[in-house]
């Protein structure tokens, strides 16, 4: 699981003109979603990731490979390799299931429940079998079905480099725990379940076109587009989610990243692209603290 939100929720699964397939065949001079952060000659690389990709989205922009090759340690938002452990799956199920008298039908108003029932019927999922699942789990399930239909796989940037790092015997690190990330997902929609479901269903309707635009901006390191697509809508439509999933987490990660300077190793920190851009993004926060921050540039 990765950071996910209600207003444009699917954009956080990616966390996150031409189609991506067209971009992959072009050679253009551009910036990237990889930054070098320097202080007194020491460097830490930051990479904005897309958590799900299609086979045609590879190879990744060359700047990711450059930063990876320079790094001794690779950091992710969370320990990716523990996600498939049975204990983690049991923890997810426990956190995302109602363990009291509540059901989806009891927490949703009639409009939201009927809209959800209509959608799940169209995709062949019997809603009565999912009554004890919390809205965060319901929406994630529906989005993953849409991603699969569009050809996306779990082999995103994070998974790709986690596998590479293990093969290359590079050290791995994480900025937060599995328990913390499960908690974010379990809390999605808490207290405003009906609005959350209706917003998420609306997002599903225009997902395919929006994802192409998002991946294009990510490949080219277009900070203005990344901020507009990942951050601005969320900040305006769902300020509570913006606060908990983006701003607060960035501030918690900041001292961990700063602690990486001054040692003998080079780190490559991979986080969802939304965490790097905007007024509360890691790039601006680090610049304000006196670090030299520059986007890597080259041929894509």
Instruction: Please state the average pLDDT score.
Output: 84
Number of strands: 6
| Major sheet attributes | 6 strands, mixed
How are strands sequenced across the largest beta sheet?
Answer: 4-3-5-2-1-6
SSE map:
Elements: H1 9-14, H2 20-24, E1 29-39, E2 42-49, H3 62-70, E3 73-76, H4 86-95, H5 104-107, H6 110-122, H7 135-149, H8 157-167, E4 171-174, H9 178-187, H10 193-205, H11 207-220, H12 223-237, H13 239-258, E5 267-272, H14 282-288, E6 292-299
Parallel strand pairs: 2-5, 3-4, 3-5
Antiparallel strand pairs: 1-2, 1-6
Helix pairs in contact: 4-9, 6-10, 7-10, 12-13
Question: Can you characterise this structure?
Answer:
The protein is α/β, with parallel strands linked by helices. It has one domain. 51% of the residues lie in helices and 14% in strands. The protein has a 6-stranded mixed sheet with strand order 4-3-5-2-1-6.
Summarize the structure.
The protein is α/β, with parallel strands linked by helices and 300 residues long. It has 14 helices and 6 strands.
Fill in the keyword field for this structure.
300 residues, 6 strands, disordered N terminus, 14 helices
